[in-house]
Design goal:
Elements (H helix, E strand, L loop, with lengths): L2 H14 L13 H17 L10 H22 L3 H13 L4
Amino acid sequence: MDIRELTEQMNHFVRSKGWYEADSPKQQSERNLAVSLVLEAAEVLELYQWQAAAADPSQLGEELADVTLYLLQLASVAGIDLEAAVLDKLAANRDRTW
């Protein structure tokens, strides 16, 4: 499954919950999705608090999936072609001095 198919699956799920509706208590605005993305990323970091490795790889996988879903959704709502953005960033980084 590629990034576009993952995005379609994510959008289908969100629509099925009614979260794209104007009267949804969980408005899927760019701002709200950006906040949710950072909160989920913090949950990834929490798995490493006070230890060098995540104690439960399956829990890490779940949190990484949450981050990915919010990232896909934010890109979709913002009209960003995430695949193209990633490829552009990789190309820019090739020539970057680190």
